[in-house]
Amino acid sequence: MSTAEPETDAATAASITIGQPAPELRALWLQPQTQSRIWAHFAEVTQVADRTAEWIAHGPAGGEYRWRTEMTDSEPDVVRWASGDGADVPNAGVLTFRPAPGDRGTELHLDVRFDPPGGAIGEALSKLFHIAPREIVRTALYRFRALALTGEIPTTDPQPAARKGGADR
Known about the structure:
Strand order of the largest sheet: 1-7-6-5-4-3-2
Radius of gyration: 17 Å
Largest sheet: 7 strands, antiparallel
């Protein structure tokens, strides 16, 4: 497995506060079905072992990018993972749980570093097609918060009502 650590980079870091204790949030994050639900806007995630998942992301022009991640260690207030060697999109992530001020729950700080395929060319393609790593990370946190607080992730898909050509004619 790659030992790359995410760098502190505003482009890939996001945080959110959730009004629940850190142990409950950590347990939810580590449930096998959680990852596939919170990253669904970006990739298909399939848990293949206790600490390992396979990812398939669909990129511009029908491109498909695959990699496998493995949790690299397990601490009570931190979850880390990294992609394996040969990943189409090498990446590493750290999720940190901290007490929120004023006993308001838990702050989650998520930092994920993606290395786009093709070096500078891949980076230019990512910008051209508006694939923004910060938005990917931020959306994952918002989806996780919804899941933690309500047990579901809200969506408008597929709700054709009031749309021209919808199935409710």
